[in-house]
Design a protein that fits this description.
The chain is an alpha+beta fold. It contains 16 helices and 16 strands. The longest helix is centred in the middle third of the chain and has 59 residues, at about 260-315. The structure holds adenosine-5'-triphosphate and magnesium ion.
Length: about 500
């Protein structure tokens, strides 16, 4: 200020300084040959320069943070030597109140002397402390986010508009077997089996067009992914999208569900095996019952019948006056009659031979007559034509369900009317047993030591059907059963 620059006209320099003053800028103007620095009033007011002559070059040493000073001095030396045209540095400076603040310092060579060496360097100081704090916060929240992303159990993968991987967390490394460096910047398709590439690409693009922010991938279908080892595995994935400064990016969160899937399949298989085993064991039992039943009916029945005929002959040929003998014969006939009846009953309980000989409809008719006679209620039976000769194993199971339902109606319901309806609808048989008795409650369905209703449910379960048992108090009970007709059997013949 006091000595004019060698090659700058005095009035122009004054005008420049006036402008600086008006704008309130923190600027400096270094006269290199003169070894002095002009500092603007704003510069001096803000930063803690020592009192006294402000032109001293090394006054900077007392306002710049000791850690940052070497860098600063190196830049100044470069400018002074003319090896660079300009320099920028972010460093800490001390304010008048003693606080250190981050500033951005810029300087450039403003003019050179006739020898070409720098003569004047000008520059500015801007307080960027708030910006720095913001950047610190951003860095901190970035680190916190990274921590969360990395501690997640699920794999998190981000891709850009070109479907190239931009983020790959620890779980993703573990699941896919890749290091981040192997995948970052690579197309997402490296994680998907080749045959799904087209479909996948379309899916993401289409999703991008919807503008929806997030949704599960392929709603109910499990997507297949590819490990580094080449192994394919099922995943559960959801995708979300965000737009930052015009760039769309997608984040996929996914879980390896191969263990879950395997367990689910094994469980389903075990259930199916168990069901088949139950069917087989029930069928074997029915066959065994059928054999014993027939034996009782044919062998025992025949013998008892011939005994009865012999007894009748004896009675006919015994002299009238032998009263004692005749009495014994009569008593024998009574025992024989009840033995025949018992044999029939046991044989029918084991398995109604009618089922094998005359078909389901006839067997149900006989059952309805028997129970209504025994319990004293009316049974209304309706069997449609398609169900009349239902094949095994359905026929036996339907018969047993009807038998248990009618017995229950007799024992518990105090019913007056029971309706039994059997119909074939499409590939299913529908059985309804409905009484007008006292009805049953939820507690009846879980009664300890009662196996009738449990048995019905089990029979239905092993035939892969469904059953509904309803009974409001005083409204009677309804048992509705639906059983699929196995394809091989073909339902009605
Ligand atoms: N039709 C019905 N009306 C009213 N209550 C019923 C009817 N059927 C069943 N119940 C009630 O439900 C209970 C359970 O029936 P379930 O057939 O399972 O066993 P149970 O008949 O008592 O014994 P069992 O094991 O000999 O069949 C019965 O004890 C009865 O209280
Ligand atoms: Mg019962």
């Amino acid at each position: 200020m006091r000595s004019p620059e060698p090659n700058v006209p005095r009035d122009s320099e004054d005008r420049w300084r006036e402008a600086v003053l008006t704008a309130g800028l923190a600027v400096f103007d270094w006269d290199i040959p003169g070894r002095r620095i002009y500092r603007s009033p704003e510069m001096l007011a803000t930063w803690d320069y020592p009192e006294g002559p402000n032109e001293a070059v090394d006054a900077a040493r007392s306002v710049i943070h000791p850690d940052d000073f070497p860098d600063f001095w190196a830049r100044m030396t470069e400018l002074q030597g003319g090896t660079v045209e300009r320099a920028i540095l972010e460093m800490r400076m001390r304010q008048r109140d003693g606080a250190w603040r981050w500033v951005r310092w810029r300087a450039r060579i403003a003019s050179r002397g006739p020898d070409g060496r720098p003569a004047r360097v000008v520059g500015t100081v801007n307080d960027i402390h708030e910006l720095w704090k913001g950047r610190d916060l951003a860095r901190e929240s970035q680190m916190r986010l990274q921590g969360i992303v990395d501690s997640a159990m699920d794999a998190i993968i981000s891709i850009d508009d070109n479907q190239r991987i931009t983020l790959f967390n620890r779980a993703a490394e573990r699941i896919f077997g890749y290091e981040p460096l192997e995948v970052l910047g690579q197309p997402l398709e490296m994680l998907i089996p080749g045959r799904f590439h087209g479909e996948h690409h379309r899916h993401v693009e289409q999703f991008g067009r919807t503008g929806v922010s997030s949704r599960p991938m392929m709603a109910q279908r499990i997507v297949t992914a590819l490990r580094k080892s080449g192994e394919e595995f099922p995943i559960d994935a959801s995708i979300s999208q965000n737009e930052i400064r015009g760039h769309r990016f997608f984040t996929v969160i996914l879980r390896d569900v191969s263990v879950r899937e395997r367990t689910r399949r094994e469980l389903a298989q075990a259930r199916e095996d168990l069901r088949e085993l139950s069917v087989a064991s029930r069928t074997a039992r029915e066959q065994e019952n059928s054999r014993i039943s027939r034996e009782l009916h044919d062998e025992l029945g025949q013998n008892l019948t011939s005994l009865k005929m012999d007894l009748a002959w004896l009675e006919a040929n015994t002299p009238r006056e032998d009263a004692k003998f005749l009495q014994t014969l009569s008593a024998m006939r009574a025992v024989l009659d009840s033995t025949v009846a018992a044999t029939r009953r046991i044989s029918a309980d084991l398995r109604p031979l009618m089922l094998d000989d005359l078909g389901l409809a006839a067997a149900m008719e006989w059952l309805a007559e028997e129970t209504s006679r025994r319990h004293g209620f009316r049974v209304e039976l309706a069997v449609d034509e398609a169900s009349a000769n239902l094949a095994e194993p359905l026929a036996s199971q339907v018969y047993r369900i009807v038998q248990e339902s009618l017995t229950n109606a007799g024992r518990h319901a105090a019913a007056r009317n029971v309706r039994v309806a059997l119909r074939t609808i499409g590939r299913e048989v529908h059985l309804d047993v409905e009484d007008d008795g006292r009805g049953l409650g939820p507690e009846d369905l879980r009664k300890k030591g009662s196996f009738g209703l449990v048995g019905i449910r089990e029979r239905v379960y092993i035939l892969a059907g469904s059953v509904e048992i309803r009974g409001d108090a005083g409204q009677g009970t309804v048992i509705h059963v639906r059983l699929p007709i196995p394809p091989a059997e073909g339902g009605a013949p």
